[in-house]
Amino acid sequence: MHSVQPSAVSTIGRLAATIDRLTRQIQEAQRAAEGRALIEVAKGILIERLQCGLAGAAKQLELLAEQAGVTQLELAADIINQAAQDRISEATHEFLEAARSRPDQRGTSGMAVRLRSAENGVVAATDAQAVAESLLEHALAPLGATAVAVWAVGSDSSLSLAGYAGFNPAEAERWRYVPPGVQTPARDALVERRTVWVRALGDVGRPTIGMGITPYGGRVAVPAGTGGRILGVLEISWPGPIEPQPPQVQKQVEALAELCAHTLEIPDDGARSAGLSRLIVLADALPDAAMVLRPHLDAGGHLTDYRVCHVNSRFVDPAGRPHGAVAGSLLLEAYPLAAGDDGLFSKIEHVHATGEPFVAENMTLTALVEEVPLQNLVTVSITRHDDAVLLIWRLQDEATRLASLLQHAQRLGRIGGFEENTLTGKISWNSQLYDLYGLKPGSEPIPLERLGDHAHPDEATVIGRFLRTVLHHRRPATTAFRLQRPDGIARHTRVVAEPVLATDGRLLAVRGAYQDVSAQHWTEVALAATRDQLTHTEQQAAERNKLALQLQRAIMPVTRGPMEAFDLNIAVRYRPAEKEHLIGGDWYDAVVLPSKRILVSVGDVAGHGIEAATGMVALRNALRGLAATGAGPGQLLTWLNMVAHHLTDNVTATAICGLYDPETRTLRWARGGHMPPILVRQDKASELEMIGGLLLGAVSEVEYEEDQIQLLPGDSLLMYTDGLIERRDRAIHDSQRQLLLTASHPTTTLEHRLDHLLTHSNSDTDDDTCLVGIQLVSPGQPAGLG
């Protein structure tokens, strides 16, 4: 083994240090050159605006930089931005505005310098490879990006790697060409014509350059184009996932893509002219109508329309205009209705932007003929060739279009046509008729006179009458019959036929059609059965509603006079539902018990119809019977709950039960899921305190709380069901507040108070309503006066 002499090691170290130093000097010199270029451009702007010489511009730049507290390079970039008013200026302005709102953010003051340095590097670059390297070094590396790829878009929407930086050469070689149809982030940006941000490649599963090295890295793909045409895609790579970026960074990225577009654009007008000439020669050789379109740009370089620069000799204008009236005009001037959302213009714009060809049959092309729209079905082909677009269309022949329309109509209507030549015996069927008969195409057609052999035996009479009319009397005829197919399926079929006669009256042929009307037949049968069933159901429902109404009115008349008991005035109001099918289970009761106490109650059974009415009768009568035991209201509701749960058919209800003692003038009450009573004292209404009480019939065993209130002379107590206040558009507690305001209205009698409540009820559910009022008569006041 040979040892390395110390002198040799020191020599190698000195050489390495020298190389590093020279490399840094070269990079600094490049940056200085780029900085000097920006300063010189800024001096030129000052000379033009201040009308001074070169020395004066240099002195003015130095003075302004000193006053602003920035370097001359940063000031030069700002001057260029203000003078240019381009996308780079816009991106820089927004970035710096955001930076001023976040004073702690660092590194933003050099934003304009970085972008202008990148622009300077792009202008000085000789190819897309140098562009990629300049973008990564000057503008993208400060954003955290580690690699960049510049894709050029081919005329067939393929992608070619025009330049790259940060990727290894072997990976770049593998991705030199991406055929059309391969879905990559760059392809997505091209087809969608927008910037595509990918947080991490693993999230989207799209292959792309460098994905094996940074499988979870973030990507952004930006279309790069000018004049409505996408010339390439700028793809930027980050080593890890990227979060949503602020608008200022997005603007910066789009500005860099625009720099790439100017590099990828073909500057040689001669090459463009040669390509356009070849395209015109191609259009003239086509057998179909063709036109060559070129983009029409406004003063700002934005695409607004396409110029028809050539039409071939086979061009046929849908509006009947000569070639000269279309050639040379703008596309939207010649065909203004092509500007629809999914019309012809949008397809041309997409092809021109992306290079992705478009082909469609039966596309509607609308032309204006003296302000009247004329629609034509055409087959369209659109392709891009360099900066031009070739549009080819073929107007459908009228006979072909009508034949296609007839064929589709026969298929949709299940119609099969036939013709029988009576002289030669030849029979012609179309394909639908073979399907209708259940025969294979090419089988021997069945003559019309043998129709009875393939019909249901019960149809012999109608078939014979039909054949005599057509073949003997030689008149058109139609009939319906059941066709028996070889596979055993019967189809309800209608046949129509007419004879073709010679001038001397001889029968030459018979033409006609069969139509499968099975679906219509069974639909009519089903409708008839449904109609009968519906009529029967309606009759049953009407009878049930009538019975429920009679039962309800027999127990609770709509009108009932006032009741006087001891010193208590009692009045009730019942308002049934306006629609009979909404008859509910609301009830009220007021009765003097053997104990001289007075039972007052209201209730509401869930549901409508006969079930609710019979449930109401059961609970109302059960409560009357239970009250005779002398039990309190809480115990009465406990027993009534057992009746609802065990002795009725799934009845649930709400109720209030009150027992008034004339000796103590005390009302004891309990509630089962119902709204508490309202006390009106000196024309001020308030609800009694809510006490516990579960819905009747919900569970088998429930204990109900009791409360009591001492009535004073002149006091009124109101009990009601929810039909008085319930609304579809308002919460129940809002309706209760409105009821308290209405109940506070001064009235002369208790009955007037109940009538006033019913009159001003704002419910909208058309439900039954029960309202019970009791009033303690004041000393010396006759019963019935309030």
In short:
The protein has 786 residues and is an alpha+beta fold. It has 22 helices and 27 strands. Helix 5 packs antiparallel against helix 6 and helix 6 packs antiparallel against helix 10.
Question: Helix and strand layout, with pairings?
Answer:
Blueprint: H1 6-50, H2 54-68, H3 72-84, H4 87-101, H5 111-124, H6 128-140, E1 147-153, E2 159-165, H7 169-174, E3 177-178, H8 185-192, E4 196-198, H9 201-204, E5 219-226, E6 229-237, H10 247-264, H11 269-284, E7 289-297, E8 303-311, H12 323-326, H13 331-334, H14 344-354, E9 358-369, E10 372-385, E11 388-395, H15 398-412, E12 415-421, E13 427-429, H16 431-437, H17 460-472, E14 477-484, E15 490-501, E16 507-516, H18 518-555, E17 563-565, E18 568-575, E19 585-592, E20 598-605, H19 610-627, H20 633-646, E21 653-661, E22 666-672, E23 678-681, E24 684-687, E25 707-710, E26 716-720, H21 732-743, H22 750-759, E27 769-776
Helix pairs in contact: 1-2, 1-3, 1-5, 2-3, 3-4, 4-5, 4-10, 5-6, 5-10, 6-10, 18-19, 19-20
